Amino acid sequence: MRNISDVIEQYLKQVLKESQANAIEIKRQDIAQRFECVPSQINYVINTRFTVEKGYLVESKRGGGGYIRIRRVILHEKQDVLSSLMDIIHEHPRLNEQLVENVLVRLVEEQMMHEQEAQLIYHLLSDEALNLRVDDRSFIRRQQLLALMKVLRYRNGG
Amino acid sequence: MRNISDVIEQYLKQVLKESQANAIEIKRQDIAQRFECVPSQINYVINTRFTVEKGYLVESKRGGGGYIRIRRVILHEKQDVLSSLMDIIHEHPRLNEQLVENVLVRLVEEQMMHEQEAQLIYHLLSDEALNLRVDDRSFIRRQQLLALMKVLRYRNGG
DNA sequence: CACCCTCTGACCATCTTTGACTTTTGACTA
DNA sequence: TAGTCAAAAGTCAAAGATGGTCAGAGGGTG
């Protein structure tokens, strides 16, 4: 693996997968020690890899007996997935390629669309295709991702 | 071989051929060092020799743990259909919903995409989703349809 | 000679790593 | 109970590590 962040990401996902409950609780310092990095590296990994749109929820507590809890969000209804993603899209001030990718990957994981469809749409929403100023790009992405959600809603019986 | 670009091209193709998967991942700096050239030379080689038309797909990531990934893909046999559609897209001064639909229908007829995919994209490119001034809408549609063509060049056997 | 590739380097964009400083929390003490 | 302290975790900006772009110089070929 190329960088320590990826390694830590994989490790955490592995632990998460192996845990019965869909949540794990870690001690930041422990993880940092295990991978020989500074503690704040763990925050970086969490902030970039375990985001809401990817379907993770993170809680933590400081002080003695502190912890970081990572939870995989489990939504039972397709509707929930769509509406939570719509909320995220609405709330995010800037929609960059990374976020678009996260959302599309999530939709595929949740079996709301096929890999190939996601692939196509990703390219339509790429920086390359949307060769505009950042704000305009963000605007278009928001419009189109919301349009996508709308289609998926009735396509999956909403 | 007369120039360094050709040498690098051959080298990369050789490595690609020898790799089990039809993809390789390189570090720009490494290759540049091996051939004693500036890093941007690698970009030049990639931009001129590993294009989509020639059947290659290139992805990359910057920053720590960055890389350049080159993938061999199989081109779709109906390049002529794509070319003619691209011409149409280029030549039309205004791209309205009707034209988008025509293009998508054609692509489905030629079995270059599935009905459902066309449906999705049609919605993304609709007047409703692209709630903009006519010219801007037209601009976005052009960009995105061209992006679509680019993907379709190699899909189905990539 | 003109033109089209190549090559180069300065400058840019993006992602990661690090560390100093901050905030929160619980336990212990006065 | 209030205050203090140490043990977490959080924040943020700078530094580091890559890759990308672009315009101009350089060179070979018809």
Task: Explain briefly what this protein structure is.
Two copies of one chain form a homodimer. With 158 residues, the first copy, chain A, is mainly alpha-helical.
What CATH calls the topology of the largest domain in chain A is Non-ribosomal Peptide Synthetase Peptidyl Carrier Protein, Chain A
The CATH architecture of the largest domain in chain A: Orthogonal Bundle
Q: What is the 3D form of chain A?
A: globular
What fraction strand of chain A?
5-15%
Q: Percentage of helical residues of chain A?
A: 55-70%
* Sheet with the most strands, sense and barrel status of chain A: 3 strands, antiparallel
- Supply the CATH class of the largest domain in chain A: Mainly Alpha
Structural class of chain A: mainly alpha
- Give the helix tally of chain A: 7
Largest interface: A-B, 27 and 26 residues
Distance, first to last CA of chain A: 41 Å
Using brief descriptors, characterize the structure shown:
3 strands; Phenylalanyl-tRNA Synthetase, Chain B, domain 1; 2 domains; homodimer; 7 helices; mainly alpha; Non-ribosomal Peptide Synthetase Peptidyl Carrier Protein, Chain A; three-stranded antiparallel sheet; DNA-binding
Report on this structure.
2 copies of one chain form a homodimer. By secondary structure, chain A is mostly helical. Chain A has 7 helices and 3 strands, in the order αβααββαααα. The first copy, chain A, has a 3-stranded antiparallel β-sheet with strand order 1-3-2. Chain A is globular. The termini of chain A are far apart. The mean pLDDT of chain A is 95. The A-B interface holds A 1-3, 5-6, 113, 116-117, 119-121, 123-124, 126, 128-131, 140, 143-144, 146-148, 150-151, 155 and B 64-67, 113, 116-117, 119-121, 123-124, 126, 128-131, 140, 143-144, 146-148, 150-151, 155. Chain B binds a DNA duplex (30 and 30 nucleotides) through residues 2-5, 27-29, 37-44, 48, 60-68.
